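C-alpha cells please, single chain.
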Amino acid sequence: MAAEASRNTWRRLRKNKGALFGMGIILLSVLTALFAYFISPDGTPDANRMIVEIGGQKPGFKQQFLQLPKSPVPPKVSFFQRLLRGQEDQFHFTPISSYTTTGDSLIIQQYIDEGVTERVAYSIHTPGWKVSGQTFHLGTDKYGRDILSRLLVGVRVSLSVGLVTVLISLSIGVLLGALAGYFRGKVDDAIMWFINVIWSIPTLLLVFAITLMLGKGFWQVFIAIGLTMWVNVARIIRGQVMSVREMEYVEAARALGYVHGRILFRHVLPNVMGPVTVVAASNFASAIVIEAGLSFLGVGVQPPQPSWGLMIKENYNFIITNNPMLALAPGFAIMLLVLAFNMLGNGLRDALEVRG
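Here you go.
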C-alpha cells in the first residue's frame, strides 16, 4: 500500500513541470558541489588564486600568464583530497602582455595595469616554465580571483547550510511537535509556551545572538540557522499528530498494550511526514537566503571561503560602476537555487495533496 502511494505521488510530481525544473536545478547544483574543484578553472583550495594585477575585470576578459614552478613544489594530493579541498597551485602565475625568446633569454612584458607593462627577462633554461592563456567568463573580483570558480565552489556552502539546517530543524521540530500533539495536557502547554517564546523573537535577531555566542565560522552559522527554523516544523507536526492520534489504528495499538514510544514512532509519525517534506523544502530555501544575508553582514562564512553572500559583500560597490556582474552573478545564483527549492516544495505539496 505504501509502495502504491509512493508511485502515485511520483506520478503526480512528474506532471508538474515547475517541480521537475526545480529538481533539475537542484540535481545540477549537487553534482556541481561534488565535483567543483574538477570543473572550476581555479581548482585551488577555496578557489583563492589571487592575481591582484587583473582585479575587477569584466566578463569575458582574457589574459596570458607566465607559469613558473613554485619552490618547493606543493605535493600532489589524492583524488579524494582534491575532491574535498582542491589542489594547491604548483606554479606562480604572472600576467603578461607578450613574450619573446632571444638566445638564452625569455623576455616578457609583465602586465601591471591597463596600459602599463614592465619588461622582465628570465633564463630560457628555467626549468618547467610555460605560457598559458585563460578566459575569465564572469570576470575577476578586486583580488584577481576568478568569479566563475568561486561561484561553483560556493554552491557547496549554500547546499551544506540548507542540508544541516533541515536536519537540525526536523530533529528538534518533529520530536517536540510529536510529544506535544500526542501527550497533550501539561506537556503540550509547556512545549507550546516554549514554541511561542521562540516564535516571538525575530529570526534574524535570534540567528545573530546564537552566531555571536557560538562565534563566527563555517559550522557555527549552520547550527545557528538550524536552531531557529524548527518552530514551523513543530507546529505542523503537533497539529497532524493531534488528528492522527484519534484514528482507529492508533486506538487498536493502545488496546494491544503497545508502549507510547512504539505507537508514536512506528504508527503515528510515518503517517504525518507528508507536510513536513513540504516544509523541509521551504526551510532549505530560507536557510540559503539567511546564510547569504549573514555572510553579507560579516557574521556568516568567513574569508577566504567562497560564499555567495560574501561574494556580494566583497563586490557590491561594483554595481554602480561599469562591472556590475561581479555582484549580480552570485545574486542570480542565490535566486535560481531558492526558486528551485520553492518550486519543488510547491510540487511536493500538490503531489502529496497537503492542505494549507
